[in-house]
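Annex B. Sample input.
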Amino acid sequence: MSNQHLWGAIEALLFASGQPLLPEKIAGILNISIEHVHTLTNDIAASMADEKRGLTIVEVAGGYQLCTKPIWFSIVSKLAEIQDNRLSAAALETLAIVAFKQPVTRQEIEGIRGVNADRVITTLLDRLLIKEIGRKEAVGRPILYGTTNEFLQCFGLKSLDDLPAIASLLPTASEQ
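Annex B, continued. Sample output.
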């Protein structure tokens, strides 16, 4: 297969998937090396950036995904009639706690927030932003929660390493 055919094949796979595809999966399907997948996807993304095209390839959640360029958001949102799926302040607080402290139990979340977190945790589980990742070796063996690939995808993160340092989010003495 020539690089020209591989470009089209990769675009087709990313389009058909609709979700981030791991480089290993693309390499396995196309019978090429993972390094070749990285090179090809970077070349395709560069080509899409140079041309006035509506799509781009982004690296997210450990894989590659075909996405609409941000400049076309207002037009695409009209077509999609995007519903308001915003998270409440309580859900965002809880999600931040899970993201920065994972693995974390419901009791630990409630200890930080100072309120019951059952409903918020259920919402985050339903939206696939968090998941049960195990049980803590403690009395009652409480469930441990962590973030998902959907969380990474939703927030445009390649990995949890892309989260800002907690210290950078805290107010300084002059801001207090």
